Amino acid sequence: AGQIPGNLTEQQIARLDSIGMEWGNRNDAAWEHGLEEARKFREQFGNLQVPAKYKTKDGYPLGKWINNARKRRNDGKLTEERIRQLDQLGMTWSVFDAKWEQGYALAAVYAQEYGNLDVPRDYKTADEKTLGRWIQNQELAYEQKKLSADQIKRLETIGIQWGSRYDRQWNEVYQAAKRYFEANGNLDIPVAYISPEGYALGKWVRRQQYAYRNPEKSNAILSHERIELLDAIGMQWEKPDSWQHRYELAQEYKRCHGNLDIPAKYKTADGIWLGRWIYNQKRLLQGEPEKLSEEQKKKLKELLGYYVKISA
Q1: Within a domain: 297
Q2: Is residue 299 in a domain?
């Protein structure tokens, strides 16, 4: 290319430098300028994963300079010496590899901050990078054997756990159930109970029981191994006391919805027609109270608050 026109500003020159403008004798100086900015970036961030739109504090478009260096190398226009200089700074020449490295750098920051890589699927970083989706893609790539040995090792170093998230979540809730059993000697957990870790443990136990009794209907997967694990902490697979169980379910429904206006076709997670049960309890209170114990009548009055006329 030609000489520098006298009316270009320093900023314009820097921008042209970043996209590979040849200035005759200035080419070496322009390269050294970009290389120095790359060194500073490496010293500050520990890598050369420069976002495409990144500019230094002085306005130098380093992201464009890096991308241009990749393009010139791919086109065979970058000297071996310059390739070596960038290699020494940890340059990733493949755009795909560069994106992977950027995702890995964000994952490492997350792991350092939270102590794990259990990143919610919809989680985004402060600059709107979809880290949750990136982690999910790594798990899928691992299952499909598309990750290199080095990538696997590096992800394991920062705490990734291979295997489906459903399996990991089940194991986490199981550990909470195990702690409850160790503290209380049973798994007679009220349906509305929330563990100290925030798990809806009462509902979880009932889902396991329902899956055991109705394997063809349940969405939960209860393997033989899981059944043995639950047996070890005192799981009772048969239905709990029918009346008390339904009463607790009604309490939970009222807590969540603020009322007991339960649709006729509403069924709980473990297959109970709760609206029908409420109807029957109201009918018993009004017409056949002798069929209820004093404790049951007391609980129903607290639950219902008032009597509703039973329609024919």
Answers
A1: yes
A2: yes
The residue from 27, 58, 88 where one domain ends is 88
Domain extent for 76: 10-88
**Number of domains observed in the structure of the chain:** 4
Which residue pairs, CB below 8 angstroms and at least 24 apart, start in 276-280? 277/246, 277/250, 278/250, 279/310
Inside any domain, residue 5: no
The rounded distance, in Å, linking the Cα atoms of 121 and 103 is 14
CA quadruple 29, 30, 35, 37: dihedral sign: positive
Same domain (yes/no): 265, 210 = no
Domain end position, chosen among 54, 88, 122: 88
pTM as predicted: 0.37
Residue 63 to residue 48: CA distance in whole angstroms? 10
Does a structural domain hold residue 94? Answer: no
Per-residue pLDDT of the chain (312 residues; tens, 9 = 90+): 444 445 677 777 777 766 666 555 557 888 999 999 999 998 988 888 787 788 999 999 998 999 899 888 888 899 999 999 999 988 878 767 778 888 998 999 899 888 888 887 778 888 888 998 899 889 888 877 888 888 999 999 998 888 766 677 888 899 999 999 999 888 888 888 999 989 999 999 988 988 888 887 766 678 888 999 999 998 888 665 578 888 988 988 998 888 888 887 888 876 788 888 888 888 888 888 888 888 888 899 888 875 544 444
Is there a single domain that holds both residue 180 and residue 125? no
Please list the helix, strand and coil fractions of the chain in percent, rounded to the nearest 5, in that order.
60, 0, 40
Give every CB contact of residue 274 below 8 A, 6+ residues apart in sequence.
Answer: 246, 249, 250, 253, 262, 266, 267, 268
